[in-house]
Every structure is written in structure tokens, then in C-alpha cells.
Amino acid sequence: MAEYIWGLCTSPLSLALIACRIQRRCAEIFEDSYDTYIASRYREYANNFENLATEMVTIGVSINDAAACDLVGGSYMRAWFSPIVLELAYLGDCTTFMSSLPAQKAIEYMWTCNIRCKSHLVPVCMFLPFVLLMPRFVQYGTTELFSLSHTRDRQVPTYPANNHERFWRFYNCPRVKHHFGLVSRHILLGILISPYKPEIA
């Protein structure tokens, strides 16, 4: 009956992942009460819904790669700050779904903002902004993922029209922010440790 109702809904992918979360939570409740049989049944239901969601996006890749990634990385409601599909999969502990090709591509796109740059060049570009003007080192993708659905972002990343947009997109990239935090912590740690360096006689 649940699968029949699921087939009639307008957002089957999101509701399948929500069902995974509910079923697995019910399984945890029954496991706490030592009712392993009912808990196993709930986990079986959760796995079935996760397989439905994974199969849906896997088939979607063969039809339209960009649209499938957009479906996984975009929000499922026309509401501000509505959770995206990846967040629902994380809450539902849907490891199989997260390992699917569309999910991995969406995660990679969100991490890099479709900016192709070697890892060892990211710190260089952070402190030498003029390097961003050299296409040889930093390349900006033109793919407009997450534009088909209503995401939480105000602006959909597109190919930068000018240098200001190029700088803005690079320094707002999660990958760059991670590198900046890592470098800053190392510099701060070096400053704090340097006064306590032992003197060599």
C-alpha cells in the first residue's frame, strides 16, 4: 500500500528518502525494545525505498545526466531553506543512494563549484589572485546544475562574465574555503609554537 501511494506522489524521489528515514527510525525504536523481528521488517522496508530512489536516479543518468544531478542536488520544495535531496539521504542513512553516480557528481559539483583547478594550485590562487585570470591554471565550467529545481541559493553558478564574478565564485567555493581554513590554522599554529622552540646549544 505504501509503495502504491508512493507511486502517485509528485515528488517520489524525496518521499522515498523520507520513508527511509522514518522506517529506519522505527527500526531503531523496536530494536531498543528488543523486538528484532519487527525491527528487521522495518529495515527491509527502508532498504526497498532506498533501492527505489537509487534506481530512479540511476535510470535518470542514462536519460539526462545533468537533469539527474540537478534532481539530486536541488531542493524538492518551492520553499526557502528547504532541504535538498542529499540532505534527506544523509538523514535517512542512505549509503547506497549516496554512492550512486548522480549523488557523487552533485557532491563534487557542490564542493568544487565546477571549478577545475589542481589541489596544489588552490593555495597559490588564494594568495595570488591574478593567477585566476590565467585559464591555464583555473578553468570555470559552464554547466548550470541545480537550475531546474528551486535551490536555496540566490544565484545559480554560471560561467563568470567578468573578473569580479570570477573572483567571487572562486573565493566562495567550499573547496577554497576549506583550504583557506587549513592554511590559516597551520600559520596560526606556527606563530603559537615558534616562541617555544628549544634553543640548540
TrEMBL record:
<feature type="signal peptide">
    <location>
        <begin position="1"/>
        <end position="16"/>
    </location>
</feature>
<dbReference type="InterPro" id="IPR057366">
    <property type="entry name" value="TRPM-like"/>
</dbReference>
<protein>
    <recommendedName>
        <fullName>TRPM-like domain-containing protein</fullName>
    </recommendedName>
</protein>
<dbReference type="Pfam" id="PF25508">
    <property type="entry name" value="TRPM2"/>
</dbReference>
<dbReference type="GO" id="GO:0030001">
    <property type="term" value="P:metal ion transport"/>
</dbReference>
<dbReference type="InterPro" id="IPR050927">
    <property type="entry name" value="TRPM"/>
</dbReference>
<keyword id="KW-0812">Transmembrane</keyword>
<feature type="domain" description="TRPM-like">
    <location>
        <begin position="1"/>
        <end position="99"/>
    </location>
</feature>
<keyword id="KW-0472">Membrane</keyword>
<keyword id="KW-0732">Signal</keyword>
<dbReference type="GO" id="GO:0005261">
    <property type="term" value="F:monoatomic cation channel activity"/>
</dbReference>
<dbReference type="GO" id="GO:0005886">
    <property type="term" value="C:plasma membrane"/>
</dbReference>
<keyword id="KW-1133">Transmembrane helix</keyword>
